[in-house]
Design a protein that fits this description.
There is one protein chain. By secondary structure, this protein is of the alpha/beta class. The protein has one domain: Aromatic amino acid hydroxylase (Phenylalanine Hydroxylase). It contains 13 helices and six strands.
Length: 277
């Protein structure tokens, strides 16, 4: 039985962001945009003239999250930060991060203007290109911003792309999602949410965080490892059918055994459901 035949409700065809965008008065930053021309990549990316306030916001966010992730984030994330040389000193150059990623896992970074339409987003991942914004949230959004900014993209996402198994999973995900349609694509977006954005991993030291949405959020990073969150062993089929909400703290999360396990289980799920491009 195919994925498409499993679901009938029209609402299942909408991603959480698309549902949010239908709300009256929705923040325009959560409405996906389509690229009108190729995004600058690697050395093509021009470093913005950030203000002193914007640099200070980066430092505040970096200091706060660096303290919170102690004994909460997985070791692969911390190693990725070191490999990319991400620090509090200054907002990183996307071009330099791209150069370092290319050396580690052959990924690159592209500069994008905001939350991308799924077609553009998945297409970049399929080509091993990570789309990153280069603007930062404002002082009144230090606690939470509903749409991605460069702190979320750089601090939250990029470190794990230095991890080979995760990088292979991420590119395979993009290749599959770029060619999926309808309900299959929505299920893939749900898998993305509960892995790339809100994933947990089992370690010898206990459950740790690898999802960028958690690692870049002060509330989620504390909340995610508490007993208030139901922690479920990762299984792609179950994950793909789980509802989520972009506006509230998550009440259930999925735990992988390792990044190799994530890669293997996802590849098997793709094969089982006939989603290979």
């Amino acid at each position: 039985m195919t994925i498409e035949s499993e679901f009938q409700k029209d609402n299942k065809n909408l991603s959480a962001y698309e549902k949010a965008a239908k709300d009256i008065g929705a923040d325009p930053r959560v409405i996906p945009i389509k690229l009108e021309k190729p995004a600058p990549t690697g050395a093509e990316i021009v470093y913005p003239d950030y203000s002193a306030v914007e640099q200070r916001i980066w430092q505040i966010l970096f200091d706060r999250q660096s303290e919170l992730i102690k004994n909460r984030s997985c070791k692969e994330f911390l190693q990725g930060q070191k490999d990319l040389q991400i620090s509090r000193d200054t907002i990183p150059y996307l071009s330099r991060l791209s150069e370092k990623l290319k050396k580690s896992t052959k990924w690159e970074v592209a500069r994008i203007p905001g939350l991308l339409h799924e077609g553009d987003f998945f297409g970049m991942l399929a080509d091993a290109v990570f789309p990153s914004t280069d603007y930062i949230r404002t002082m009144d959004e230090l606690e939470y911003t509903p749409a991605p900014d460069m702190f979320h993209d750089i601090f939250g996402h990029m470190p794990l792309i230095t991890q080979p198994s995760f990088a292979r999973f991420y590119q395979k995900y993009g290749q599959v999602a770029a060619n999926a349609t309808g309900l299959a694509r929505r299920q893939l977006e749900t898998i993305y949410w509960f892995t790339v954005e809100f994933g947990l991993i089992a370690t010898a030291d206990g459950t740790r965080i690898y999802g960028a949405g958690i690692l870049s959020s002060p509330k989620e990073i504390i909340h995610s490892l508490t007993d208030a969150v139901e922690k479920i062993p990762f299984e792609p089929e179950m994950v793909s059918r789980t509802e989520y909400d972009v506006w509230h703290l998550q009440d259930k999360l999925f735990v992988i055994d390792s990044f190799e396990d994530l890669e293997q289980q996802f590849f098997q799920w793709v094969d089982k459901n006939g989603l290979n491009p």
